[in-house]
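Hi! If you just cloned this repository, the fastest way to understand the data is to look at a raw example. We've pasted two of them here, unedited. The first protein comes first, obviously.
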Amino acid sequence: MQIKVAIVDDDEGIRSSLVSLIRRAANLKLVGDFPSAEAAIKEIPARAPDVVLMDINLPGMNGVECVRQLKTLLPQVQFMMLTVYEDSDSLFNSFKAGASGYLLKRTASARLIEAIRDVHQGGSPMTPQLARRVVQFLSQPRDEGQALPRLTPGEKEFLDQLAKGYAYKEIADRMKISIDTVRSYVRTVYEKLHVHSRTEAVVKYLRG
């Protein structure tokens, strides 16, 4: 099955390199590349990508806000930030907006292709350094009075599997449920926790 990919980056050289990379990769199909958030919001819904590679520093609307708006329109699409920024604010703002992965533009081509397939399967690819920041964030004390809403045993088990890093298909196998049931858990858990991404759900669950 081909994974349909869209690219949003204002740097023509970088965008061209990514276009060539996607076109050469097995099982990936480029469905569009865009130089701005405004163009992406206008065109991407009609292209129906599976994965969007999103730059943060765009002219006009930034990439984080672009993800936030597109995720509302296309909740099933996976967004992976591809940026030069390695700061914690950009990382967590991206995840809160609905991104599922976060890699730096200097990431090797083979690793980037692997990450696209990973995020499509329900993973959350990021560098070890950024993953460490997530762990450090999780170790901070939780604000009192922010108890989690009531979750069913199945939803709790799903979140536990999600927190361990398993992809959706692996969760289905481990819980002995269908992939459609897993997707149902995604919808209900996201709604109950008021989150928009896998990472944000895991952070809220582990800190709750």
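Ok, and the second one:
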Amino acid sequence: MIPATATPRKPGDPARILFFADAGPSVGGGHVMRCLTLASALAAKGAVCGFIATAAAGAILDVFADTTVERVTATGDSAEALSAAAARWSAQAMVIDHYGFECGHEARLRDSVRPLLVIDDLRRRHDCDLVLDSNLGRTAADYPGLETLAGPTFALVRRDFAQRRDAAVARRALDQGPQRLLISLGLTDVGAITARVVDVLLPDLGERALDVVLGAAAPSLARLAPLSALDGRVRLHINTQDMPALTAEADLAIGAGGSSVWERCCLGLPALTLVLADNQRPNAQALDTAGAALTLEVDADDFEDQLRAVAGRLTADAALRQTMSKAATRLCDGHGAERVADRLLAIIETPA
């Protein structure tokens, strides 16, 4: 039933869906980015989407959110503060993508607004109406008793990637050799990992180009900005809006193990996935097992040596690149956000 404090939705009114996503130096910007992808899919179907804009999330929204996304203030991050914000904004549903927001918080939040969709990849306990976990190998059995959208069929990928899919996959089938390498290790560039990777690759780069994606506050910029000014092979893309084109035009990638893995899979891009956080490890290893990517642990004592060896292998082995591209393409078609949006809207439309 509709909670007493929720605003009933009138027939014909657009659904109003409020997002709360974590962000910051330790967790990066991936939670906000994948929520923006879902918000875009919902908006395309007529919904109105708002974001509770904490300071960290707000900085990402300032760069990447379009004008359809509304900003919503909250007095804190407790269930009670979110409930109050949802009531002021007349939300009919909420999406939570926040590791610090746990089952008990969800239960209290559902007293005032539902349906509640939780995006997770840690197999945590939840009290919600719908769970989304797009990690490879996940099933409904990982979230017993809950309706679950599991696996990369529901991966949140922007529709711009799906639109480039056919052309990118066809070009990769020809494989003229790797000329452009994409380095994309998260907007926050944890531990200045991007500069470490570029420094390893440079001695063996030859005439290849490096497209390096960074956030405006990335610590690696102190090293890479002057390098890019001197070396035309290193092209910096700061707070870029054009990841679909960069991904489609790349021949190889070195990327983080978060949700961007599905962008690369959608476009069949052979990739080396770097595990930058513990929560990235299971999915990265599953992709490796499936033959869709190779995986390295950044914390390994011999990380630089391993990176040099694996990058050299990917560059030299055309058959490996072809195998990886085909395996990656089979996993994700890029339409997951539309499927999730359809299901959430269907729940909202279902009479209480």
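That's it. A detail worth noticing about the second one: Residues 159-174 form the longest helix (16 residues).
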